[in-house]
Amino acid sequence: MTLLGHDAAWREWHKAMAGDRMHHAWLLAGRRGVGKATFALAAARELVGADGQADQHPDIHVLSFAPKDDKEDRKRAEGKPFELARSIRISQVRAMQSRLSTRPTMGEKRAIIIDPADDLERNAANALLKSLEEPPVGTYFLLVAHSPARLLPTIRSRCRVLRFPTVSDNEMDRLLTQLSPGADDATRSAAIAAAAGSPGAALEFVDMELGKVAQEMRAILDRGDPDFRMRGTLAGLIGGRPDRNRIRAVLELARSVVGQRLENNLSDPRRIIDTHSELVRLTGEQPTYNFDAGLLAMEIGSLLANAATASERADG
Q1: CATH for 7-163 (3.30.70.100, 3.10.150.10, 2.50.20.20, 3.40.50.300)
Q2: What pLDDT, in 10s, does the model give residues 200-242?
Q3: Where are the domains of the chain?
Q4: What's the whole-model pTM score?
């Protein structure tokens, strides 16, 4: 089944496969959650002729986040929950490159998927560049990127770009109604607003039940929080020990709530703009820093409260 917004990408891919000389490196660019990784795996299976075979194929290699360290690797081996590293390491790229010295196992082609390529360590990115500059015959790279600008320009210049568009609010609403029928209107509305056209992000927000979080954020932005009670409520809704995905989702939700105010005709939008910029900064730091959940909730709440007096429209 083709996911929403993938039709154009599939047309380009199939046209390239039917051509005489298919480009060896592809950059799949778009917002997180629009289905780029799903496309990459399906396209790789078509490329190596894996249709109808088992999910794992010896000529499809996927590089993604590995266990953080040896301790976490042992947990994985024992079937226990384990923590992932925050980047794709050079050792993973070197291991992949060692495979490229041999021929594909079952045919003439192999596919290398890197997801997400914009989280390659600097040394790993430089190592990958060498393979892109001198690709082995029959090897094709599919680089999934949420923020292509973070990739080395020399990597981007060697890739053919497939862009994955966002999905309209109406399509998102139909999708959520179909896949999450138990979600109430408030949760669905918050998910659509926060996801900014990303179906995967919207479904993630619904699963995390962030509707009440969005309502509390809007209330703080509407009324301020002089006695800090609403910030305490916000912290409780976010949770005492949220994982990395929930923290990222909360930050993206806060950015969306503030961004919606920027669409209004404000008398003085500077404070709202500054608040949005601070939330963008926090979101950018989130993959690298271990945020204390309570302090992060208070910081988000304080940014919203400080922006509250700037939310009045210029026309009253």
Answers
A1: 3.40.50.300
A2: 888 888 888 888 888 899 899 989 999 999 999 999 998 888 8
A3: 7-163, 208-310
A4: 0.75
